[in-house]
Design brief:
Elements (H helix, E strand, L loop, with lengths): L1 H10 L2 H4 L10 H9 L1 H17 L6 H6 L1 H25 L6 H27 L3 H15 L1 H14 L5 H4 L3 H4 L2 H22 L13
Helix pairs in contact: 1-4, 3-4, 4-6, 6-7, 7-8, 8-12
């Protein structure tokens, strides 16, 4: 997961070149969106890679245990990156190249992404660590949607879609909804396992007292 996130984040650095009007490797449909809504799109595209890179750090138990201050500060940076990039994504969604269906999918993603991330931060501040861990899982499931989206693009072309714009209404939902469902299933199973481990083990039956 961390390797794929790093690769996608590094690949996204090409968007910084667009600030100098260099469009190397930028899909024409995405370029059209960036030209229509440059501030909104660049806010998302330039900041979201930081969330991709910082997210895996939040799941390292060794980091939390040995370097709690680093865990907290990297977590704050992750929250800030998600909120800023999510706001940019939400503001860009009306201009999605796949039309209103793609815009709806990406818009819902942006709202839920911001919401779960802020909920994770609030839970941590209030010391509700179980809720914090749960919300962080959901938050990064949606952050990781950027990776899943890029994995789905070549599949879309292989299935016969002629352009990113024509296929984007599909990954606008499939890039993140399955991630959320997987996290939900994992969290349910993890909670059941934790409850089963916390149950007291019945002791041996008491021997009858001789009388």
């Amino acid at each position: 997961m961390a390797v794929l996130a790093t690769l996608v984040a590094v690949h996204a650095l090409r968007y910084y070149a667009t600030l100098e009007n260099v469009w190397l490797g930028v899909d024409p449909d995405i370029k059209a969106v960036m030209l229509r809504a440059p501030l909104q799109a660049l806010t998302h595209m330039l900041i979201a890679p930081a969330a991709l890179l910082l997210g895996p750090l939040q799941f390292l138990p060794g980091l939390r245990a040995r370097h709690p201050a680093l865990h907290r500060w990297s977590g704050r940076a992750y929250v800030l990156a998600c909120v800023v990039a999510g706001a940019g994504a939400l503001a860009t969604s009306p201009f999605a190249s796949g039309g209103w269906v793609a815009g709806l999918g990406f818009g819902i993603l942006a709202v839920v992404w911001i919401g779960t991330t802020v909920a994770a931060w609030i839970s941590a501040v209030r010391g509700r660590l179980e809720w914090h861990r749960l919300f962080v899982r959901f938050s990064y499931a949606m952050t990781f949607g950027a990776v899943v989206l890029r994995l789905q693009i070549p599949i879309g072309y292989a299935l016969g879609y002629a352009s990113y714009a024509s296929m984007s209404p599909v990954p606008a939902f499939t890039s993140w909804v399955p991630n959320v469902l997987i996290v939900a299933l994992y969290s349910i199973l993890d909670a059941r396992r934790a409850r089963s481990l916390s149950r007291p083990v019945p002791g041996p039956a008491a021997s009858p007292t001789a009388g």
